Amino acid sequence: MAERRKHIISCNSPFNVQKMKSRSEFIIKLLKSRSEFIIGGFDMYFKRKIDEDLDSWLKEKGKSPALIVGIRQCGKTETVQEFAKRNKLELIELNFWTHPEFCSDFDGPLDVEGIISNISLRFPKTALNPSKTLLFFDEIQDCPRARLSFKNFKNDGRFNVIGSGSYLGINGYIRGDTTPAPTGCDTVFHMKTMDFEEFLWAMGYRQEQISSLSMYFENKIPVPQNVHEIFKNLFLKYVSIGGFPKVVKKYVETNRIVLAYKELESTVFDMKSDFGRRKDKNGNPVFNASEVSRIQNAFDLIPTFLAKENKRYIVSKISTGSQYDKNDAIEYLRQAHIVSKVYNLEVPSLPLIGQRIESQFKLFPEDIGIVSSMYGLETIAAINHGDLGQGKGAFYEASTFDSLYKGGIEPYYFAKESGLEIDFVIAYQGSSTLIEAKSTSGNVKSSKTVMKNPAHYGKTKLIKIGDYNIGQEGDIVTIPHYLTFLLGKTKYDF
User: Which residues of the chain have pLDDT under 70?
Assistant: First the structure.
């Protein structure tokens, strides 16, 4: 069995029908056995892709302190706690949001001995053995001097130090704070919410089961229908609840979409409540009531535009304020990594960044769960049962963005006043590649028009993402929605 598993992961041997048949039978057996690997309990930790990166960081000689930045509720704190446990490190955790008094430990000179002396007074029962201790500065944006101390910790070299925080504070978005951010003194890790592959891990699927999908993808052969149906249904569950770890945990624990959705509602509510919570160094609110209201309105308008045919975000529709103020509200959401801008292109040709139109963009939340929360429980329950209803275009396009973004691929789109419109355009395998994300087979007339006119639009290829199986005809590839995450990690040669 071990040999067979090893063979499936590599998938390098020449393809033949009998071999693929035996592999498929084995894959089905694995899928049926997945429940054995689900561990109950709210405190269980779901493996994340950043785990391996942090383990590698720990082994580095002369390493800088690590800085983990990400959207709220993406799992930063739990990841660091598990990292300490996994590597048998004594964890000293200072959360500057819940305990602002900890900031006083960094008053005065930022010498390591002084900081350690201050910290040891707060944890008198813990021996701060440098090689066996992890200093964890959580919500570090609320204590800029803690991050400033990274330079001295790097030069000292004795202690393992990790900081974590939100993008807004780390990026210097807090007005009135003149504390300089150190440069070259930390190793930055960007953490996102769980992608579909991490969701599958949380659901109990082993890597060899997931790797089977890469095997079909790389060999350009259809996924067996029974396997296809299993993963299609799993993807719908992912679209329903998204990738916030607390929400996924709730679903794994209960197997109930209703309870997971309630957790999702709470998570997004906390996110919205966080708009404008930042204070300057004097304790005064950074944003006034009008600014906070404008940010909330900019956020609340997202499903309105996602539901429209072209999905383009119209800044002028934000309720109040000048054009500058309205753009500033969107910039807040972008810098917080709650949403991403997907820009329209003059022409879909490489380099894509040189073709983008700054004033024309779509806004996509950086987790599909945020979109789901906007549409309500009835819609989510329908999606979980395979019925995307009137909002199917928004969900499939938003879920495609989710997979591309979390896979490290920057998408654009292409639209003209003539009605020519293509959902996404990406740079893939050295070519400008069009992506059409449809709930069913869908109409790809615009993409075919572009492909037939290389002199005008440049040479392009097309990936159709929908209720398909894997297939290819010339420069047109079809893949099912649940395989979109492979575009960022697995090579597909047209």
Answer: 1-43, 169-183, 279-283, 388-393, 439-442
pTM of the predicted model, to two decimals?
0.89
pLDDT score recorded for residue 274: 85
Can you name the residues that pair with 137 across neighbouring β-strands? 94, 163
H helices of 11-44, where? 17-32
Please write down the long-range contacts of 419-425, taking CB distance under 8 Å and 24 or more positions apart.
419/446, 420/446, 420/449, 420/450, 421/310, 421/446, 422/348, 422/446, 422/447, 422/450, 423/397, 424/342, 424/397, 424/400, 425/345, 425/348, 425/352, 425/460
DSSP 484: G
- Alpha-carbon gap, residue 494 to 491, rounded angstroms: 10
The superfamily (CATH) of domain 50-191 is P-loop containing nucleotide triphosphate hydrolases (3.40.50.300)
**Amino acid identity at 247:** V
Number of Cβ atoms within 10 Å of the Cβ of 205:
21
Contacts of 169 by beta carbon, 8 Å cutoff, 6+ apart: 140, 141, 142, 278
Rounded CA-CA distance 397/399 in Å is 5
Centroid of chain to Cα 456: 35
Strands (E), 166-235: 187-191
Structure-token pair, residue 387: 């019925």
* End-to-end Cα separation, the chain, in angstroms: 33
Q: In 10 A of CB 456, how many CB atoms?
A: 10
Task: Kindly list the distances between the CA atom of residue 47 and the CA atoms of 61, 114, 130, 437, in Å, as whole numbers in the listed order.
Answer: 25, 36, 27, 29
Q: Would you state the pLDDT for residue 126?
A: 86
CB atoms within 10 A of CB 226: 12
* Domain residue spans of the chain: 50-191, 230-273+337-488
Dihedral sign from CA coordinates of 267, 269, 275, 280? negative
